[in-house]
Write a structure and sequence with these properties.
The protein has about 210 residues and is of the alpha/beta class. It is built from seven helices and nine strands. Helix 7 links the parallel strand 8 and strand 9. Bound molecules: iron/sulfur cluster (SF4). The site of iron/sulfur cluster has 13 residues, from loops.
Length: about 210
């Protein structure tokens, strides 16, 4: 059976990490995005047929969270998790209430644009999110717009602002993908100046 014909997964795993694919929406259209070329990963189809409800997410999570001693629950799939901020908050609160597991969010950093008037960082902190990994991907706006093709004109400024606000509140890292248009050294230098860790990701955008 091909991956695309399998039932889509909200919950999937790689090693000891349990991942949540809670949306396929994203305010970027990165040319290197894994979802442009693949239907999923590790035998899981991540192309959702419809956007899941909160109860569909929690039902599926409850089916799998006890299966082994997961090291981490990670919001990361074929879309931007913070497009569904309320779901991230609810699911994180539930996980942290019942399990001693680290919760991480992999994000494009545009949460303040897609969640107008929300105190995103404060709300994530209150829900007890532990780690945030932000796809910075460029040392300037021009390169970012070229490779990530954001819907919003002020996307890059918001990504930088998001990292600055998250710094010190969570375990934060900025990341970049190994593509020729991006000067990894310059992005790394920028992360260092902001004061967060830097991690290089292989050309396979959303995954470890
Ligand atoms: S790589 Fe991430 S930020 Fe870029 S389009 Fe794909 S899901 Fe969105």
């Amino acid at each position: 059976m091909s991956l695309a014909s399998k039932n889509p997964s909200i919950v999937y795993w790689l090693g000891d990490h349990l991942y949540l694919n809670i949306t396929n929406r994203c305010s970027n259209d990165c040319y290197f995005c894994f979802r442009r070329y693949k239907s999923g990963i590790n035998g899981f189809n991540l192309k959702l047929r419809e956007e899941p409800t909160l109860s569909q997410i929690t039902d599926e999570l409850q089916n799998f969270i006890n299966r082994r001693a997961w090291e981490e629950v990670v919001f990361c799939g074929f879309g931007e998790p913070l497009e569904k901020l309320d779901y991230v908050l609810e699911v994180t609160k539930w996980v942290k209430k019942h399990f001693p597991i680290t919760v991480r969010i992999d994000t494009n950093g545009q949460a303040y644009i897609v969640n107008d008037r929300r105190n995103v960082i404060e709300e994530l902190k209150e829900a007890k999110v532990d780690r945030i990994s932000v796809s910075l991907n460029a040392h300037n706006k021009e390169t970012y717009n070229d490779v990530c093709r954001p819907k919003f004109e002020n996307a890059y400024e918001n990504v930088v602002k998001f990292i600055e606000k998250a710094k010190g509140q969570f375990d934060v890292e900025a990341t970049a993908v190994t593509i020729p248009e991006v000067s990894i050294l310059k992005v790394e230098e920028m992360a260092r100046k902001i004061g967060v860790k830097f991690r290089l990701r292989a050309y396979q955008p959303c995954f470890w």
